[in-house]
């Protein structure tokens, strides 16, 4: 993390592009990194934010005990949220809807787009199961009225119903709707809505910081040669290429 903050400082301090890149040695870079002070409490909060947002309830509880970092929501709610997410990821949309209504009935009442996507996922699961007549009836009764009120809903409904026109649905132009990634996409949207209803960030802060790190390095690459972090997993500094 100190690498990130020092990196931003270096980027903003180099105002013009010289004829040749400035070379910053590993020794100089590491010496400057040691001068960047980051509170352990802030690092712990960042870790807890990630664990809570991503739903690692057991890890969050263990980290709370070991670090003394209190989460900003009741950890018991994570279990309920993950049960909703798991049901949706397994294709059991009706169970997911029932669980989210038990958790907070206003979530779906105040988010028509999310509710439509859940119903769309139900239609996809019916098509996946080969229940063609039931799928057509469900589309007509539950989704078509919503499509008439919203053009984007109508377009999504048409793409989904189009699956019924193909014998080999997995290899048709809209086959990606049957991919597991579509379930994950809908589950992620629902997870974000639950977090928002709990006054919690819908996305963890850590990935955003890593994206900023990559951006800052790419910007600084044009102005200087310095020890880079090329592997975010190990966060190892690599000597500057000169």
From TrEMBL:
Record InterPro entries: CRA_dom (IPR013144), CTLH/CRA (IPR024964), CTLH_C (IPR006595), LisH (IPR006594), Ubq-SigPath_Reg (IPR050618)
Gene Ontology CC: cytoplasm; nucleus
Biological process annotations from GO: proteasome-mediated ubiquitin-dependent protein catabolic process
CTLH domain segment(s): 77-134
Top-level taxon of origin: Eukaryota
PANTHER family: RAN BINDING PROTEIN 9-RELATED
Name under which the protein is recorded: (wild Malaysian banana) hypothetical protein
